Amino acid sequence: MTKVILIDDEPLAREVIKAYLKYFDDIEVVQECGDGFEGVKAIQQHQPDLIFLDIQMPKINGFEMLELVDAKPSVIFITAYDSYAIKAFEANAVDYLLKPVSEERFREAVLKWKSKVSPTAPQRMESVLNTMSATAAQQNRIVVKTGSKVKIIPVHDIQYIEADDDFVKIHTPEGAFLKNKTMNFYEQSLDPAQFVRVHRSYIIHINQITKIEPYQKETHLAILRDGTKIAVSKTGYVKLKTLLGI
Fold it and tell me: The whole model's pTM is what?
């Protein structure tokens, strides 16, 4: 039996999907969720084969929710999103349903998934998430998971980002939080007028810098408001001087 979770903040939309799923005898809806927080917990609990996921939801959207899930299930998106997002789905072979969803199109999507379940699906999904996380709508906050809780970090609260093995550590006045992304991803997606990569291991919010001091040969230290000292490489120093106009 195929385990399915429905994640949509509109009860009527969930009822429509359940009605359409009655056509498939081998699919069981194990849980319905009204927001992304519930969705993360449900996926961890049930380990579904497939989820139907609305993108535009309150609290956190569908993309942000998927970033918090370690073992990502197959996803059929339900969306009223723009053509830019749809191109991202199509390029990575992820199916989507445009609201309002017709039964014929719904069956087509499920049958397509059944016939094309692939071991490369997680990599394709990661590509979609990277594409969508870099859009303007996603650049004003970062969503992280701390234990069983979800925290939304406004970008303006970030002091600096530090490389930490396969993760990055996002430093804020409330503490540091791990995120399963790369330094290159944040270097490309954060506003270059506010954030600068000063070292292969550090990206700094320039508003946090109070002083730049010489350190060793051709290197410097950036002193932040809270007293933190960040290594600045030769290349990073050139970037800082250009950005700060010094």
Answer: 0.79
Last residue of a domain, one of 136, 152, 183: 136
Domain of 16, CATH number, reads 3.40.50.2300
Among 92, 118, 136, identify where a domain stops: 136
What is the per-residue DSSP string for 56-110? S-SSS-HHHHHHT-SSPPEEEEEE---HHHHHHHHHTT--EEESSPPHHHHHHHH
pLDDT in tens, the chain (246 residues): 999 999 999 999 999 999 999 999 999 999 999 999 999 999 999 999 999 999 888 888 888 898 898 888 888 888 877 665 666 566 554 678 888 899 999 999 999 888 876 555 666 667 777 666 655 445 688 999 888 788 999 999 999 999 998 899 999 999 999 998 899 989 988 999 999 999 999 999 999 999 999 988 888 999 999 999 999 999 999 999 888 877
